[in-house]
Design goal:
globular; 7 helices; 135 residues; Ribonuclease iii, N-terminal Endonuclease Domain, Chain A; mainly alpha
Length: 135
């Protein structure tokens, strides 16, 4: 029974057949869960404190800057995934500009693609490169 949850989160899909917007949708959730767990592991926080810190890491401007940090580590395939995520047509929220939003969508698309394709080792490697720094 306890392996069912692990199996669910380890299930692979053919990520190539999905839209870059789906990659970004899943990547948003995966990255936010990663940040939440890392913050919890770093100390005891109230839900409000965690929420406040999480928002700092998941906003578009932060994700765009994280993508910039990762660029030198990305292989050609990953750069192509980011490009496809960045160029996909979507609505830009009023809280950010189009360029920042497109780069953050590219970041989320990369995270989502790696997760959905089952390349968890590479996903972990990239997430650890950017870290989140708990203070």
């Amino acid at each position: 029974m306890d392996n069912k949850l692990v199996e669910c989160f380890s299930e692979q899909v053919n990520a190539e057949q999905l839209s870059p917007l789906i990659w970004a949708y899943v990547g948003d959730a995966v990255y936010e869960l990663y940040v939440r767990v890392k913050l919890l592991a770093g100390g005891h926080f109230t839900p409000h404190n965690i929420h406040t810190k999480v928002v700092q890491f998941v906003k578009a401007a932060k994700q765009a800057s994280l993508l910039e940090e990762l660029n030198e580590y990305l292989n050609e395939r990953e750069q192509n995934i980011v490009r496809r995520g960045r160029n996909v047509k979507s609505n830009v929220p009023k809280s950010t500009d189009m360029i920042t939003y497109r780069h953050s969508t590219g970041f989320e698309a990369l995270i989502g693609y790696l997760y959905l394709s089952g390349d968890h080792e590479r996903l972990w490697d990239l997430l650890e490169k950017i870290g989140i720094g708990v203070d």
